[in-house]
């Protein structure tokens, strides 16, 4: 049962102009495997530096070298994080890395950057505005509601979005994204980042990252989200006497009469263009996770469509050419 397949909980609530980072070690050391991020519970790596991590002063990194709680010092091959070597000394609620699965709630946040770089069972993002959210692989459903100006980057089984506007989704989704017709300006794009232990997390999640199984640009559009049609509510209804199992497929099921036909050439198709669009390859750039975490992943593990990989290669070649010109000009200036 998907709803019970988690052993840790993370709540990120009421953050404003903050940078939040959570990795496996944070959950292993958390009491009962529960993390509640509030005004005073930021990751120690970022304590005192709440602005964008790309602007952290050098001393912020230097000062953490002697901080044993800092993620920069976490060795992902250590017995603490390696499930095969783990002993019974771990008395916290969370299980080792290869068994960690987090139920994630991100609510009521503004102008913040949130990095939850762990395996996720279910994710709920509600009432967030002007935020960047980077998540580890999600084996269930990510649901976004009542949000605006949010960028989400994640590999996931499925994603559902409702009552939101100006959302950018850089995703690898094994199921079709589900978008409510009350959404506006949802931008869909391929997954565009990596961090050092991402490959290990993908292997644990068993999610597929090849192009054939990536439905990032093939959404289904709801006319509306009706509570009466929700499999989740039906399974938990107090009037229901039989026990039902809620799976990710149930959560992503669309009643046929509640689906807009995006292939129509009539006004319905014009309506969907106001709801979502596909990011132009020329506007596609990689996103850098600005933290020093040990691991072996060196590049984006998700296969990109040809037009996006070609644009990235062209941009990279242009940058290298510019570097050569600058280097040549510098050498001439000092001679």
Which secondary-structure class do the elements indicate? alpha/beta
Task: List how many beta strands DSSP finds.
Answer: 15
Query: What's the end-to-end separation, in Å?
Result: 70 Å
The description of the largest β-sheet is: 15 strands, mixed
Helix segment count? 7
What is the averaged pLDDT score?
76
- The share of residues in extended strands comes to 25-35%
Helix content: 10-25%
CATH topology of the largest domain: Pectate Lyase C-like
CA-based gyration radius: 21 Å
Count of discrete structural domains: 2
**Overall geometry:** globular
CATH class of the largest domain: Mainly Beta
List its salient traits.
single chain; 335 residues; Pectate Lyase C-like; 7 helices; 26% strand; globular
Walk me through what this model shows.
Pfam families: TBCC. This protein is of the alpha/beta class. The chain folds into two domains: 2-304, Pectate Lyase C-like (3 Solenoid); 306-335. Helix content is 19%, strand content 26%. It contains seven helices and 15 strands. It has a 15-stranded mixed sheet that branches. It is globular, with a radius of gyration of 21 Å. The N and C termini lie far apart (70 Å).
